[in-house]
Give the backbone structure.
Amino acid sequence: MVNSMTGYGLGESEIEGLKVTVEARSVNHRYIEVGVKTPYKNFALDDLVRKKVKGIFNRGAFEVLVALDNAETAVEVRINEPLLKGYLKVAGDISEKYGIPYPPSFGELVQVRDMFQVAGDAMNTDMMARPLEAALDQALEKLALMRGAEGKHIALDLAGRFARIGQWALVIKELNDGSVKERFATLKEKVEALLDAVAVDEGRLAQEAALLADRSDITEELTRIESHLHKAGDILGSEGPVGRQLEFMLQELGRETNTIGSKSFSTEITRLALEIKGELEKLREQAQNLE
């Protein structure tokens, strides 16, 4: 199943009077990145959230917001006494030496790193873990469903564009099959016009035409395009992350298309190659949205 990297999910849970609400969002990212915002610092709970997300998803930038009702019943905040005493001593010395106002305000104390600590962190972790995990599971399930639904629409769009490229490649193949004889006839006419009444060495002319045909032959490129398109179809129908595989396949298709455009003497083949390049750019933009 093809999944998008964009989605949103909301989950709520209340256990033993503690209500937890979780919002989970994800957007495109080359790898996987998880940001967690909780009402207060708790590394164990942050780690729980990150492990949950990384256990389900493979790519995307995730933002998980955790909100608590009745959080005050689960949290006891204590002041870091040693740090406060040291801070006040230094502040007093600075005030005496430089005349800076003393004592510092509460707002200034709050900004000091680690000045306030959450007491009973293990108890709070145990108390919060169950409702947090239940709400998180709901949010991530809804997020995954949204990513899957959007991924399905993107996959249909990609399949249609790959089919269009396949049709253009068939037209190019038909044009290429008839172009060798046409190039030989054109070359012969030009040589005869230049030499006027002088007889043309058919053998030498055929040799030159063969060299020209070899330099402009695009059969190999068309075969590889056909193979890449078949592989792209397999990727879209596979399970698991497909975004990076598709991006690589599109690079290969672009390389073959560029070669066709540079080799061909046919204005129609050149035009079709440009059409394919334009479609590949749209495909590349879409593939970047996939997990």
